[in-house]
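Troubleshooting: if your tokenizer reports a length mismatch, compare your output against this known-good record of 105 residues.
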Amino acid sequence: PGADGGAAPGQARLNLSFAAPSWVEITDANGRKLLQGLIAAGSSRALAGAAPLHVTLGNAPAVNVQLNERPVALTGLVRHDGSAHLLIDGSGRATPATAHLAHGD
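Known-good structure output:
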């Protein structure tokens, strides 16, 4: 049990593949920024961080998301503009996340 190889305890391995360009921002539970920027079509990224991961996708329908080699279902989490703001827990369950708002204004 727990020996699926790869991520350290408490670490989530996230794999993203992009069918079309998408803006991405991913932060782990410790507030460490794992990935930020516009990722080109045909690209893929693999990263690991402490769960839950806070994931923002600008073109969510074009992004295939896997956590620890299991698909993450984004059904019902993509907004009308194609973006998605998610929290992905260590088991790969995605829930809506509140967008990060700048403090002060």
